[in-house]
Design a protein that fits this description.
Helix content: 25-40%
Structural class: alpha/beta
Low-confidence stretches: none
Bound molecules: ligand T4K
Distance between the termini: 16 Å
Strand order of the largest sheet: 2-10-9-6-5-3-4
Order of helices and strands: EHHEHEHEEHEEEEEHEEHHEEEHHEHEHH
Strand content: 15-25%
Number of strands: 17
Number of helices: 13
Length: 379
Amino acid sequence: MEKQILVARSSIPDINEYMAEIEPIFESAWLTNMGVKHKTLEKKLCEYCNVPYVSLISNGHMALELIIQAYDLKGEIITTPYTFVSTTHAIVRNGLTPVFCDIKDDYTIDPEKIEALITEKTTAIMPVHVYGTICDVEAIDKIAKKYNLKVIYDAAHSFGETKDKISVANFGDASVFSFHATKVFNTVEGGAVVCSDEKIWNKLYKLKNFGIEDEVIVDDVGTNAKMSEFHAAMGLCNLRHIDEEINKRKILAEKYYENLIGIKGLKLKTNQLNVKSNYAYFPIIFDENEFGSSRDEIYDRLKENNIYARKYFYPIITEFDCYKDLYSSNKTPIAKELSEMVLTLPLFSDLTLDDVDNICKVILKNYTHNITMNERNLL
Ligand code: T4K
């Protein structure tokens, strides 16, 4: 294929819409430090997610770091090894110890395995709504209440989702979004903490601005994690189009389902009951024995065709050089196994239905048995 297709492509507004949004920034010369655009975006995100407090942060990773600091957590945090490395780094960079819990076959933390990992040092659980699959929030909540633990969701992948019509931002004590360029909703770089406690919002306000209380008082060891006015302006533009963005992704994801569902050896992400998905990622599990080709073979074949799928999330965190001597991946066998079989296919709003068909054709090229209707249409 001549056209290069990457796993993601940023959604950007019309340039004139952005120019109009940033014009007042040029007039005021107020470029950062919680200016008008920053305040407006926080307000609009509160409305969109139906939550009391949103604190905008320079990126999703710093949002994770700062919410751990804001709650003054110590000791151990139970989390998942099947995630982007940021989740774990945020815990470790705060001087805490991550304790890894295995996942279910929907990629999210297995609540049934959490209790056995709780010690007297455990202070929180940090689950991840991986690919936008919402964790078993009720079961996690029950455990957290029983042991008096905080729950901080890494909701980097799940902006715009609802469960039983409630925004995903409402679960746990706090949720962290990433608004990185590759996300369903982006501010170029950016992120946010959503919480229901005004004290925590105030603390974050200070922590992201060096711990400054006022001109002469600095009473926290904060950092610089502010979102600039230009980033917030991008967010204001993109937020106007978020429903359209999710709908375009939905149409493409449905095309993937239509082409690939029922193929022996392929396991697609399941649609969750009563969940409005944001279609952030399209992961597939390749069972080499049944499908005939391994995940790595498909990855290479797609690449030969100029299609750059990604092995999110391979390897699992406990196999990275900086963690592998401290942990054993055998303790989280499901996470390890899925990471070796998963491939995340291109999914972004500028992708076309023809692109999806072509990607599926490459995947199904050598597949010979159990040909389904959908597959027959493609060959
Ligand atoms: N928690 C979780 C669960 C996360 O997944 C992430 C981030 C975080 C926390 C931390 O949030 P942030 O601090 O990032 O806000 C990408 C993203 O950079 C990262 O945000 C994301 N997760 C992760 C899953 O994916 P890479 O290293 O794979 O990015 P890269 O540069 O290889 O880009 C991937 C593809 O995206 C490219 O092939 C093309 C496309 N792309 C990339 C860029 C930079 C664009 O279309 N536009 C762009 O500007 O990490």
